[in-house]
Amino acid sequence: MSTPVAVLGAGSWGTALAVLLARNGVPTTLWGRSPQAVVDMATARANTRYLPEMTFPDTLGISGVLETCVRDAAIVLISVPSHAFRDLLDEITPWVAPAAGIAWATKGFDPGSGRFLHELVEERLPHHPAAVVTGPSFAREVAQGLPTALTVQSNDAAFAQQLARLLHAPTFRAYTGNDILGAELGGAM
User: Fold this and answer.
1) Quick one: 81 exposed, middle or buried, by C-beta within 10 A (0-12, 13-18, 19+)?
2) Exposed (0-12), middle (13-18) or buried (19+): which is 21, by Cβ within 10 Å?
3) Which residue in 128, 144, 136, 118 sits closest to 174, CA to CA?
4) Which end of the chain, N or C, is more open, meaning fewer C-beta atoms within 10 Å of its C-beta?
5) CA gap 71, 11 in Å, rounded
6) pLDDT by residue (tens digit) across 2-40?
7) Answer CATH for 5-188 from 3.30.1490.190, 3.10.25.10, 3.40.50.720, 3.30.465.10
8) Are strands 51-55 and 61-63 parallel, antiparallel or unpaired?
9) pLDDT for the residue 135
10) pLDDT at residue 94 tops 50
């Protein structure tokens, strides 16, 4: 059974994670806010602005239609700057499928309130499995195929394991745990 993933945020980290997932055979759609950037990525089959050396697999979908990406996803992986996280979360909340998992690869705190990002997710999507994806990793290293490791922290062990399996690749390791607060704090620091 396939697990469609929507990666929201077409910066360097979102692009690297979307390409990794698609290369792993995961049905993946990369969403970008800028219509022109979406057209450029679809045409070039690369994100020439952030990771020009990382070509997109033919199976990676590119979209500028947020609602469709979110509605069709079993996992929504948010990878936007922390200052945009709250607004994007508010925008997608009505469209998230009832059983969809929510993950984020965003580091930092909510700048408006100083709150942890997991608090915003729990408040808006309280009955969804949630996980933070973080670690001492860089998008360019993933693009170059260099050994990379990160952590998937969640209070839902099954969801953490599922997401880690989807990300696992010969040069990419994802380790799981249940310390969301510690992972977010470490990522922000």
Assistant:
1) middle
2) buried
3) 136
4) N
5) 22
6) 899 999 999 999 999 999 999 999 999 999 999 999 999
7) 3.40.50.720
8) unpaired
9) 87
10) yes
